[in-house]
Design goal:
The protein has two helices and twelve strands, in the order βββββαβαββββββ. It is mainly β. It folds into two domains: 81 residues, Elongation Factor Tu (Ef-tu), domain 3 (Beta Barrel), CATH 2.40.30.60; 64 residues, PRC-barrel domain (SH3 type barrels). Belongs to the RimM family.
Length: 168
């Protein structure tokens, strides 16, 4: 099966003409304009994007052939997905969250921290959550260059340069 990426979550219907209110999971709100079609979690078919409207915190989407609220209500709560062929090319040193989850974290001194299990949005920065499988302890590291000097998808690892007291 293809690896799918979440680009939004359908939070509700909008009006009676089959429009859906979607919370974008992309840093690039206009992402949906680049897509001809998407998948919906739990369904195998492609859904071709009709209209796109922007609201302050959401995107209003409609799909071709889905012009009635009764048809689209089943999608509430589902994720809007794309396959890897639809990925945008990212700038250097920028990564998809889905590619980072599961990478091993090591300090610059080669001390194993655990696997990256979550990425939390905390204000203007993200925070990486590493979990040590043996102790089940979470270690939170701000995802800034000062503390994360290297990420290697090829080596499947993230290098952390913590300050004193950050990891204990």
């Amino acid at each position: 099966m293809k690896k799918m990426l979440k680009v939004g979550q359908i939070v509700n219907t909008h009006g009676i003409k089959g429009e859906l209110k979607v919370t974008s999971l992309s840093d690039y709100l206009e992402r949906f304009e680049e897509l001809e079609w998407v998948y919906i979690q739990g369904y195998d078919e492609k859904y071709y994007i009709g209209n796109i409207k922007y609201r302050p915190t959401t995107v209003i989407l409609s799909f071709e052939g889905y012009d009635n609220i009764n048809i689209v209500e089943q999608f509430k709560g589902k994720y809007v997905l794309i396959d890897e062929s639809q990925r945008r090319e990212l700038p250097e040193d920028t990564f998809y969250k889905a590619d980072l989850i599961g990478l091993d974290g090591y300090t610059v001194e080669e001390v194993y921290l655990g696997k990256l299990v979550d990425i939390i949005q905390a204000g203007s920065n993200e925070v990486y959550v590493f979990r040590d499988k043996e102790t089940n302890k979470d270690i939170l590291i701000p995802a800034v260059k000062e503390f994360i000097p290297e990420i290697s998808l090829e080596k499947k690892r993230i290098t952390v340069d913590p300050i004193e007291g950050m990891i204990e």
